[in-house]
Design a protein that fits this description.
single chain, 58 residues, alpha+beta, two-stranded antiparallel sheet, 4 strands, 14% helix, 14% strand
């Protein structure tokens, strides 16, 4: 079995762990009301998806 010859330094270890970042979600404008919505999902404010009303909103 492979065994490391030297202890991994903190800097080298932490460089490897530094790439676990969260990415911001992509947002697009709703075609009807212009509010920012995640793609391929119905708009929460007006209830439309692909210019059709799929959720009844007040």
């Amino acid at each position: 079995m492979a065994v490391p010859k030297r202890k991994t330094s903190q800097a080298r270890r932490n460089k490897r762990r530094a790439n676990w970042k969260l990415t911001a979600p992509n947002l697009v404008k709703c075609s009807k009301c212009g509010e920012l919505v995640m793609p391929h999902r119905a708009c929460k404010s007006c209830g439309t998806y692909k210019n059709k009303e799929v959720i009844v909103t007040e």
